[in-house]
Amino acid sequence: MNWKLFEELTQLHGVSGYERQVSSFIAERMDPYGDRQWIDANGNLIVFKKGTSPSAKKLLFCAHMDEIGLQVIKINDDGTLMVKGLGSCWIYTTYQSRVMFRNGVAGVVSSRVRPEKVENQMVNLFVDLGVSTKQEAEQLVEIGDVAVFLGDYLELAGSCVTAKAIDDRVGCAVMLELLREKLPMDVTFAFTVQEEVGTRGAFGAAFSVAPETALVLETTTAADLPGVEGHRRVCAPGRGPVISYMD
Hints:
It is built from six helices and 13 strands. By secondary structure, it is α+β, with helices and mostly antiparallel strands. Strands 4-5-8-7-6-9 form a six-stranded antiparallel beta barrel. The radius of gyration is 20 Å and the shape is globular. The protein starts with a helix and ends in a 31-residue tail after the last strand. The model has no long low-confidence stretch (mean pLDDT 91).
């Protein structure tokens, strides 16, 4: 895989419902390889590539472009921002995270109560931009603006990497690699939107493409954790791809 391309993908700003930067990046780089591309009504980027031996079967590869993030719902008098999560923003990992808005303004997530009492209550979290008045904050962001969590791309030991938005820019990167290959059959690639808020884009892509077979390239949670018994370690990094047989 092109790891440099993957790194660039992870650092793009693509909160659910605001994936345009990601779709534009992908469209530009796969333009020479696809036979036809279009954006559907939901914002999905769909690419058709003709195979060397066309088949009557319709094959669809699918991966989502969006990532979790935060959206401003109120600007307080002291310049702090009340937010809601877009996607599954776990409180315990959200607290003290750094975030960045699409215009480049950065902030830090803090809490109105002691961290151990935050529980799963997003209403207790806010974003601190470093300003002290509502007027200052309003010069930087507006209600409705969205922010991504900052997460640099880093190479770890053991041939592993960490970054924000690996879910599911890695699937997008794999599909970009496949688009460069000679394929044995006609394939449609769907880079979908709003997966983190209800797989909304995928539903539209499935109906518009209407494939006989669909392969979804997605991340999943590993269970190779200390203290977890062997039969409960449903998957582990480095053991190859995971094929889900139940949800």
